[in-house]
Every structure is written in structure tokens, then in C-alpha cells.
């Protein structure tokens, strides 16, 4: 049996996706095999949750945005305790628990004819997210490390988006705001698909607990205070808040709401937006992984911010051309550009976080990042709901652009603090100078 985590130098990993797959331990292959299918249901529901709550269940955009923010708030508040449990119980059991909570939340959301039921669904989904991010990254880090870990994060993200994008395309052609049963169906399907990884976690992966023992030398207590003292950790947390606010927090709430209410495009266009986003990630992620290896992760992050700036520019322009083919094209272009930026962000920020984390603190480190990320996820939908409900689309885009500028400044500050190794720069043996 392969000793875990498996660690290979970059030159020991074969070329292409086939070489990556051969380099993985058996456990890593099992874990990757269900990622796309697991997220297919999420892809069906993710682009349309705000539309569902607003146009089918007749909640105001303010209320719909608040429900999405509540989901993120629960995830943020629960992430700390869940990170401690991940270090204590192991990531495997936490991943199983996350699947169950997400499934129950999707069932509740399917029948959210009243505000309390919608709130219940959001709370359960938020609880799932509070567990899932920390436990998933911790579990992956227990399987692989080094260059193989960075590639794993990237391929995992591509497969995740494959499921989300295909799901969004299917749902975009299937759901109809005049037929609530179509929305109920996609939430119920999500409730089933999210449980699939449990088959592997209870079977072939049952021996991988992803629970590290404390070193026992008293050098670092297993507390969140210790986590915050890690070099660069506070800047990483601020970076997580900002990238969530200007990116993912809007992708689930602000983007569909802006596209529908300001750009006035149809649900089919929003489905194509998510499908195009996925296509870019799936087609380019592995090529991007090869190109960025050995380069500073913070500089890669800056390039991502420039691409996201172009994406939000396209979205803002679509609002000036409402209910036109040009608006629809610009909305889809946003999805493509946003996806290109994601291919740069997702292999780098999780790798920075996990490369700076001691094994016995890994659950807490990932939970702290998850909390920060969800903090941005709370502010994002709240800001989007408040501004777009008042037809302030221009101000909404302006705030996002300002947020991108602040994020770039934080990225440069982080670069000064973390070591070249944590920043993904190859260093020659016996030499502290980066190779490139």
C-alpha cells in the first residue's frame, strides 16, 4: 500500500492528465472519480436559487439575497468548530456529515413555499459548506503533497466545475418559472447526487481518516490563536474575504440577479453562462497548471484579478444594453472570463494555505480560510440584493471594481511575507534563490 501523503517531484510526474492519474495513489483516484457527478446537482441549483426564490416562491430580491447571505453566515460561524472537529475526528467522517446536511438542505429548499422552510434549507446547506471546504482540503492534503498537491487541487476544481457547468446547462433548458415542479425536481436530484461520495468514504477510503497527531513537543498548541500567528495567515484570510466578495459570493447571487433584472436576459442565457464558465475551466485547467508550475502564486493571483476586471467590465456593459442579443453575449463572455480567472486562482490559494499549515493544524487552517471566504459570501449577496433591488446596477459594478483593486494590494502584501516555497517557487537544493 502506498504511504500517504504521496510526494513526488515535478519531474517524476508524467506528462498530461494520464501522467497525473498514474502518479496518484489509489485513494486519490477514488476520491476524484465522483467529483463531477457529485456536483451535477449543485450545478442545476446554483445558478437558479435566487431566481427560484424570487420568481417562483415570490420572495423579494432583498429576501432572496438575505437567504443566500444566511447560508454563507451559517457556514462562516460554524466553520471554526467544524475545523476543530476535523482535526479531532478526521476529515473522512466530516465529509460524510457534510453530504448528509447538504442533502437534507436541498430537500427543504425544494419545498420552500414559506420563509421558515427556505431558512431551514439555507441553514442546512450552510452547515454543509462549513464542513465541506475544510474537510475536503484536509482530506486531499492527507493523500498528496508537493507539486502533486497543487495539480490535484486544480484537477479537482476542473471536475467540480464540469459537474456544475453541465448541471447548469441541463437546468437552464429544463426549469420554467411558470412550473414550480421543475425547480423542485432539480433540488431533489441534488439531494441524491451529493450522497454519492459516501460510497467510497464508507468503503475503499475507510482507512484514510485524515487526522494528524499533535507533535507533542509543545511547540505549537492546536488552537486558532496559533493558526493566526502563522506567517502570512492573516493576509490569506483577508484575501479569502475579498476574492469571495468580488467573485464567488456574486457568482451565486449577484451575477444571476444582475443578468435577469439589469441586463434582462433569459434563464437559458444564464444556463449558457455557467456552461461556458465550465467549458473554459475544463478545457484550460490542466494547460494552466503546467504553465504556472514554479511561478509565484501571488503573481498568478494578480493576473487573475486583471482577468476578473475584464469580466466585470463585460457584465457592466451588458446592463447598458438590456434585453438584447449583445447583452446576452456579454453575459456569456463574463462566464468565460471569470472561468479563466478561476483556473489561476483555485490551484494557488488552497496550495498556499495548505503548504503553510502544520499537519496537526490543517483542519483549523482550512476552516479559518473557509470562515473568511464565507464572510465575503455573506457580504456579497447582501450587497447585491440591496443594490439590485433598488436598480443600482452601476454602483454595484463600481463597488466590485474597487474590491478588485483592494484585493490586488493585499496580494502584493502577502507576497512579501510568505516563503518562496509556500509561494510555489522552485528552489534549488542548498540554495535559497528561486529557480524562476
TrEMBL record:
One of its GO terms (cellular component) is plasma membrane. Residues 1-420 form the Major facilitator superfamily (MFS) profile domain. One of its GO terms (molecular function) is transmembrane transporter activity. The chain crosses the membrane at residues 59-79, 152-175, 181-202, 235-251, 271-289, 301-321, 327-345, 366-388, 394-412. Pfam families: MFS_1. Keywords: Cell membrane, Membrane, Transmembrane, Transmembrane helix, Transport. It comes from Janibacter hoylei PVAS-1. Gene3D superfamilies: MFS general substrate transporter like domains. The lineage of its organism: Bacteria, Bacillati, Actinomycetota, Actinomycetes, Micrococcales. It is found in: Cell membrane. This is Major facilitator superfamily protein.
Amino acid at each position: 500500500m502506498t504511504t500517504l501523503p504521496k510526494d513526488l517531484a515535478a519531474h517524476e510526474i508524467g506528462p498530461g492528465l494520464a501522467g497525473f492519474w498514474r502518479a496518484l495513489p489509489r485513494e486519490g483516484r477514488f476520491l476524484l472519480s465522483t467529483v463531477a457527478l457529485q456536483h451535477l446537482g449543485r450545478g442545476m441549483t446554483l445558478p437558479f436559487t435566487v431566481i427560484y426564490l424570487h420568481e417562483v416562491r415570490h420572495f423579494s430580491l432583498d429576501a432572496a439575497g438575505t437567504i443566500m447571505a444566511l447560508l454563507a453566515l451559517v457556514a462562516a460561524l460554524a466553520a471554526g468548530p467544524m475545523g476543530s472537529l476535523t482535526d479531532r475526528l478526521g476529515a473522512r467522517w466530516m465529509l460524510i456529515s457534510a453530504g448528509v446536511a447538504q442533502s437534507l438542505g436541498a430537500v427543504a429548499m425544494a419545498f420552500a413555499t414559506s420563509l421558515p422552510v427556505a431558512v431551514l434549507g439555507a441553514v442546512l446547506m450552510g452547515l454543509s459548506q462549513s464542513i465541506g471546504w475544510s474537510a475536503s482540503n484536509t482530506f486531499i492534503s492527507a493523500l498528496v503533497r508537493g507539486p502533486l498537491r497543487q495539480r490535484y487541487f486544480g484537477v479537482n476544481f476542473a471536475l467540480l466545475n464540469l459537474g456544475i457547468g453541465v448541471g447548469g446547462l441541463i437546468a437552464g433548458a429544463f426549469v420554467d418559472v411558470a412550473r414550480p415542479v421543475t425547480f423542485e425536481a432539480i433540488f431533489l436530484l441534488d439531494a441524491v447526487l451529493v450522497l454519492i461520495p459516501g460510497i467510497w468514504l464508507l468503503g475503499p477510503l475507510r482507512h484514510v481518516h485524515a487526522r494528524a497527531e499533535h507533535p507533542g513537543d509543545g511547540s505549537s498548541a492546536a488552537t486558532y490563536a496559533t493558526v493566526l500567528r502563522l506567517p502570512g495567515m492573516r493576509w490569506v484570510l483577508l484575501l479569502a474575504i475579498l476574492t469571495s466578495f468580488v467573485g464567488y459570493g456574486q457568482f451565486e447571487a449577484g451575477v444571476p440577479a444582475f443578468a435577469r433584472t439589469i441586463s434582462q436576459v433569459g434563464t437559458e442565457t444564464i444556463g449558457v453562462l455557467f456552461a461556458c464558465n465550465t467549458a473554459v475551466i475544463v478545457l484550460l485547467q490542466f494547460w494552466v497548471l503546467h504553465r504556472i508550475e514554479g511561478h509565484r502564486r501571488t503573481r498568478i493571483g494578480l493576473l487573475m484579478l486583471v482577468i476578473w476586471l475584464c469580466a466585470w467590465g463585460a457584465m457592466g456593459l451588458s446592463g447598458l444594453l438590456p434585453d438584447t442579443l449583445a447583452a446576452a453575449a456579454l453575459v456569456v463572455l463574463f462566464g468565460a472570463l471569470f472561468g479563466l480567472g478561476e483556473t489561476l486562482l483555485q490551484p494557488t490559494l488552497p496550495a498556499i494555505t495548505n503548504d503553510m499549515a502544520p499537519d496537526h493544524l490543517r483542519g483549523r487552517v482550512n476552516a479559518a480560510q473557509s470562515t473568511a471566504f464565507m464572510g465575503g459570501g455573506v457580504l456579497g449577496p447582501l450587497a447585491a440584493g440591496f443594490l439590485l433591488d433598488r436598480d443600482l446596477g452601476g454602483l454595484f459594478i463600481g463597488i466590485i471594481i474597487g474590491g478588485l483593486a483592494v484585493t490586488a494590494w493585499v496580494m502584493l502584501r502577502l507576497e512579501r511575507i510568505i516563503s518562496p516555497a509556500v509561494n510555489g517557487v522552485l528552489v534549488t537544493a542548498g540554495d535559497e534563490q528561486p529557480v524562476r
